[in-house]
Amino acid sequence: MSERTQTAPGRPALAVTVGDPVGIGPEITVRTLTEVGASASARAVVVADPAVLRRAAAVCGIDVEVRALDSWDLPAEQDGVIDCFDIGVLGETELPWGVVDKRAGEAAVRAIEVATGAAMEGGVAGIVTGPINKEAIWAAGSEHLGHTEMLGALTGVTRQNTMFVVRGKKIFFATRHVSLRTALDQVSVEHQVKSIEEALTALRVFGHDNPRLAVAAINPHGGENGAFGREEIDHLAPAVERVRATGADVSGPVPADSVFHQLLQDRYDGVLSQYHDQGHIAAKTFDFDGTISVTVGLPILRTSVDHGTAFDIAGTGKANPGTMRSAFLHACEFSHYADRIRAEYGS
């Protein structure tokens, strides 16, 4: 961590982006920081146009001062104040709530660029990201599919993975945003070995010195010895055995209808799910607002909400800040691993 971060009064700093400024991101950010910001173990600096936060505070009925900053050499903290690094995109312009807008996309992209740059240079210990609208960033000229791809380009990383965290438990994904058919086609021993090894590395980086990982099965009852499918026999079990031979504590394939319950019973520290919904359904059914996303593989800490911009309720002050609160508080906790993250994933 740089001298600038170390000299910030008392606590490490985190850069918080609101995502699309006409979605619910500004509202859930203001609510989170007024509720838990003062007592958290890290300090938040929102990366946005200050007027966006002031408008969000107004629709939420929150009386808070927004202090504009133009430097990461942070001033002394003050109660009742949200610090905002001014990105200078929208100024005082008020865009319509809940409408796809190129200018909103430009603000969202600029905030991500500024926050990521600060983390790469050591001005902050990590970033927390609010929800973006893909149509808006594409209208603004971004060529990236979303946050993860943009962060990869900004940090020079070509492979990143998602780690869900829910009440301290971690869930990983062998495949992500592809159809179920494509996910099944991607199953192979080599792919599984790589996914298992990456999950184990992430568990070590985030505080599990001797990680215990379970690999979820794909087919009902784990395939019933081939009666319900051979993926477990042909691909998953050989991959598990190959990694176990290195001394790693890896179990599986474990039937998916029980592996997440076993995770909650503390049998494992993490589970490698085989496809997007397998892990998402388990985590979000258990605790929707408490489930947050961490991008592993980047040389910086990044936590994120795991929901969209909710344009239908943006500007009403009704948005639930639960997931943003969880993302921010987990980033506070994980900020202690900033050096580990940089050492493991930095070039």
Task: Please summarize what this structure is.
It contains 13 helices and twelve strands.
Q: Could you please describe the fold and organization of this structure?
A:
It is built from 13 helices and twelve strands. Helix 2 crosses helix 3 and helix 4 packs across helix 6. The chain is α/β, with parallel strands linked by helices and 347 residues long. Strand 8, helix 9 and strand 9 form a beta-alpha-beta unit. It has a twelve-stranded mixed sheet, with helices on both faces. The chain has two domains: 205 residues, Isopropylmalate Dehydrogenase (3-Layer(aba) Sandwich), CATH 3.40.718; 121 residues, 3-Layer(aba) Sandwich (Isopropylmalate Dehydrogenase). Helices cover 41% and strands 17% of the residues.
What key phrases describe this protein's structure?
EC 1.1.1.262, 12-stranded mixed sheet, 347 residues, Isopropylmalate Dehydrogenase, disordered N terminus, PdxA_fam, metal ion binding, elongated
Radius of gyration: 21 Å
Q: Report the sheet with the most strands, covering strand number, pairing sense and barrel closure.
A: 12 strands, mixed
Q: Report the total helices.
A: 13
Question: Could you list the spans in which at least 5 consecutive residues all have pLDDT below 50?
Answer: 1-9
Give the overall silhouette: elongated
What is this structure's SSE topology?
Blueprint: H1 3-7, E1 13-17, H2 25-37, E2 43-48, H3 50-60, E3 65-69, E4 81-86, H4 102-121, E5 126-129, H5 134-139, H6 147-155, E6 161-166, E7 169-173, H7 180-185, H8 189-205, E8 212-216, H9 231-244, E9 249-254, H10 256-264, E10 270-273, H11 276-287, E11 292-296, E12 302-304, H12 322-334, H13 338-345
Helix pairs in contact: 2-3, 2-12, 4-6, 8-9
